[in-house]
Specification:
This protein is mainly beta. It has seven helices and 24 strands. Bound molecules: 3-amino-5-(pyrrolidin-1-yl)-1H-pyrazole-4-carbonitrile.
Length: 325
């Protein structure tokens, strides 16, 4: 089988939500290549936390996995926990007849407040799934044996709907050729080595170890690369109050170029002029921020919305394919 589902941007492209049928109920989920749990708001989630969200009702067709629990926390200190059911999950026409559906019995305030988001669909490696006592497979791992090709592609867009495709590569969605690089799976991420970064034809240094992460909004780069980039924007400062680099909204924000697999790819400067940093609209928050304390680079949606990316498990060695949109 194969299929395609829309990836609808939230305000400022902060995250992208995709309609998924869970036990015959449609929920809008954040597809996240940086985590491996499929969890949903449910009828088990306290009403004080779930108001405004679509909820999965396991009573309809879910089979309880007795004694199974899950508990996930993300790098931004958000998190959720709950119990586990097996149920039918359909994404863009691709059907997992019995997928582990993690029903939330508790969610953090960030999730409670984003009422468009009804949960997450993890697309990292199942080795980092949090279900106990037995780890469960991601939707992709559950269905990959039934897909025409064991891969999915990500085509996020700036300010408009993109797509996640499962089982095939749509050559109309990218320009030029796809450059493949090997993936290191030991941390459970789609992790690879990126190369040199430049802006205004000046070297910013090497990016190095990086993950392709649809669940992260911004790009978190090595501190040296980040400071060298913002040194080229007059008025840019690293503001503790704002929580990162900001600059005058009318500044000239240079394109960011990164080499992957020997090919150069470009993130337009306008994607890096991310959002107003304050109510005056005078200062804007940068789409590139330092990866301090993370330990690797995260190439999130600001990067991905300039790219067409193939998440490929067609061979025993997973690989990532990158192309310009
Ligand atoms: N922090 C963080 C994070 C990440 N690195 N990948 N996905 C994340 N989230 C998904 C939902 C909330 C945060």
């Amino acid at each position: 089988q194969s299929g395609s589902v829309a990836a609808n941007p939230e305000q400022y492209d902060e995250s992208y939500l995709c309609p998924v049928q869970v036990g015959g109920q449609t929920l809008n989920l954040d597809f996240d290549t940086g985590s491996a749990d499929l969890w949903v708001f449910s009828t088990l989630t306290p009403a004080t936390q779930s108001t405004g969200h679509a909820k999965y009702n396991p009573k309809t067709s879910g089979k309880a996995k007795s004694g199974y629990t899950w508990n996930i926390s993300y790098g931004d200190n958000s998190g959720a926990s709950g119990t586990v059911y097996a149920d039918k999950v359909v994404v863009g026409g691709v059907t997992a007849t019995s997928q582990a559906v993690e029903a939330a019995t508790s969610v953090s305030t960030q999730f409670m407040q984003d009422t468009d988001n009804d949960g997450l669909l993890g697309l990292a490696f199942s080795t980092i799934n949090t279900v106990q006592p037995q780890q469960q497979t991601t939707f992709f791992d559950t269905v990959k044996g039934t897909l025409a090709k064991k891969l999915f592609t990500v085509d996020l867009k700036a300010g408009t709907a993109g797509t996640y495709d499962f089982g095939y590569i749509d050559s109309s969605k990218y320009a030029g050729t796809i450059t493949y690089v090997p993936v290191k799976t030991t941390n459970g991420f789609w992790e690879f080595t990126a190369g040199a970064a430049t802006a205004n034809n000046r070297s910013l240094g090497s990016v190095g170890d990086a993950i392709a992460d649809t669940g992260t909004t911004l790009m978190y780069l090595p501190t040296a690369v980040t400071s060298a980039y913002y040194a080229q924007i007059s008025g840019a400062t690293n503001s503790a109050a704002a929580g990162g680099y900001i600059f005058p909204c009318d500044a000239d924000v240079p394109d960011f170029h990164i080499t992957i697999g020997g090919k150069s790819f470009t993130v337009p400067g306008e994607y890096i002029n991310f959002t107003p940093a304050d109510n005056s609209g005078e200062q804007c928050f940068g789409g590139i921020q330092p990866n301090t304390g993370i330990g690797f680079t995260i190439l999130g949606d600001v990067f991905l919305k300039a790219m067409f990316v193939v998440f490929d498990q067609t061979t025993s060695a997973p690989r990532l394919g990158f192309a310009a949109q």
